[in-house]
What does this fold into?
Amino acid sequence: MALVDIVAHIPPARIAQDNAFFRTARQPSAVVGVLLLGFVVAMALLANQIFPGDPLDFVGQPFQRPGEDPSFPLGTDMLGRDLASGIFHGARISLLIGAVATAMSLVIGVGVGAFAGYYGGKIDASLMRLTEFFQTIPPFLFALTIVAILQPSIATIVGAIGVTAWPSLARLVRAEFLKLRHGDMVQAEIALGASDMRIIFRHLLPNTLAPIIVSASVMVATAILTESSLAFLGLGDPNVVSWGGMVGAGREVLRSDWYIATLPGVAIVVAVLALNLLGDGLNDAVDPKQERR
Amino acid sequence: MKLFRAISFQTSLVARLSVLLAAVAVLPATPACAADGPKRGGTLTAIVQPEPVTLTPAFNTATPTQIVAGNIFDGLVYYDPALKPQPSLATEWKVAEDGLTISFNLRKGVKWHDGKPFSSADVKWSLENVWKTIHPRNKAIFENVATVDTPDDNTIILHLSKPSLPILSVLNAVGAPILPKHLYEGTDILNNAYNNKPVGTGAFVFKEWKKGEYILLERNPDYWEPAKPYLDKVIFRIIPDAAARAAAIEKGEVQYATFNPVSFREVERLAKLPSLKVDTRGYDWLSPVLYLDFNVENQYLKDVRVRQAIAFALDKEALGKVVWYGYGKPAVSPVPTALTAFHDASVPKYPFDLKKAEALLDEAGFRRGPDGVRFTLHHDFLPYGDDYKRTGEYLKQALKRVGIEINIRAQDTAAFIKRVYADRDFDISSSYNGAFPDPQIGVVREYWSGWLGSKTPWTNGSGYRNAEVDGLIQAAAVEGNPKKRTEDFNRFQQIVQRDLPTLPLLELRFFTLHSSALKDVVLQADQSYGSLKNAWFDQAPAQN
It folds into this structure.
């Protein structure tokens, strides 16, 4: 069969849908992920409408089980705080921390990876030693240390997660850049007199975007988990309600009042699962080896 | 002060005889009848949390050290439930009319665990080298002891330059620990190897310390008190996780645990089990009080009306019931009610009254802004666990109602101590202090300006300076007349409760969990730091 015939046999509809968006939409896990994430985002956006007022206020009798009092559908905790309100408002903090910390990691990780991969040589060597320095310390312990020293607040937690989560991303971006750096496209651009910055940001970066997006979605999930773990260990910001903080507080009454720790725990599971499913779906969609299954 | 009750060597002979007689009397009876008296045998597994840093209470008064050491060392006395000293290594004592001479008769025939005889030289050496110098609570109390005489091996006489009445309130095994002179003399006490393998005269002998796992003590067969102790072994296990502690206690693996070993909610559940008992006695000797320190140099808190407004805005009843699950009683004065001789119930009081709080704040000139907020303060809580964190959360919500925004700061213990007592970079802190049986020991340290600048933790955190209060504290320290001394302390309480540099919140009640098969386990006011020599098993636990 001639090449022309093969092309002719591909149905036109298939060509139209053959972009990352539609390929993602065809992944069932991605669809579930998007739906769950949409639900969590909706919780965050509607928190003030559905549960006006301070979620940290002592509004009811302590230790009310879910459904015991219709005004507190998910019950109250040991100080009489509304658990449902805490979970809704906690979604804001978790998403905020996840998004901002990931943005920070992206800037550092992509920056380091891009310059190291593009320039090579001494710049590459020094940037990679820096990356390795960060990689030798387990990111969670590193974040824990930073927060413990600087004292827990939203800003320090975001900062700690942001500056510890980027090394793997930097290596990923560097590898992609190395692959493309000596390819024909870059050589042609150099020949045409394009500046380094133009080559990096206009041409190389868009070509490495797919793996970055995939890892970013997982990084958001990891950031949420890290914040929860920090709060669970008592290093959350005590002035805001967070899922990890709720689990940590409820843990000491786990045997007698399981729901206080379990319900915010479920919220963490849903958010992290959503982001991981989305990441998986995106990964499958952008991986050329899986394109025609 | 008059002569106290004395147990002579003779009476202990009588006791020994009566035990013998009792043993003969129950011989023909069925074993069930034997349950009427203490039974020998059994291994007690207890919890010490967190793991102690050292096992010698001479220079470290951390709770875990004292819990274990109380079994290895004997004091000159112990404290009965009414906080009266009772004979231990001292059989009798006498305080001269003018309070300047205190003499002790020491028990004869007492041996250190290594077999060497115990004598007045050990007490003299410990007083001069430990109590007066390195013991964190005792320095001021023994300061006025000028000379110590030991006319014979069993007599010790203290000559004081000025009276020091609180001496008789700190003479138990951890308050004034007696170390073996023959092992410590001429050594660097702080780094002596015996600090971690202590040699005492107590009912239990130190055997093994497996770091991170357990501390093993065995019965002292040569103990001076006949028939005691009843237990063969005491194992202090280290279980860092509260949920694991609760499980071990519930399963019966652990039969004795002090200082709130499980969460309050968990104890409600465990208290219902027939196999377990909850006891809140045995902590009276330390009388812990939860309090807020106001930094009186803060631009808002330097106004006494603001401090009083905060006192009115806090519902201490609710704080005790909800935040401390009933294990706290509203405090009226910094001197807790357990110190009956010194507590003054007529001090200025601050019942829960939001209107009064708002009025005082308005009067002080701090009106609510357009967002309803008058001003913002930081709060630092003692990082000893969730109870203290919840106290901070309560404070935040309670003060929000009167327009004071509170920003809670979490940190570790070292950072907390540095911030409050060294850097003084705080607005309101919460913590607790043991008052101990005499205000001189545990209360006045929070108010005496002499501590300022010393950076000593758990002293004057507020930065309070009042010449009259200082004068009263110093007068009471050297006052030999108990009545006059009580008057000084009453006046002291009146002033500090009016000025409120420190707001006493709750008289905390710690609890002990123990197996119902374990009998006679809490017999002393200082039991939580005391010896388990009276404890016995009705039914020995299954060993694993």
User: Anything to note?
Assistant: The longest helix of chain B spans residues 9-26.
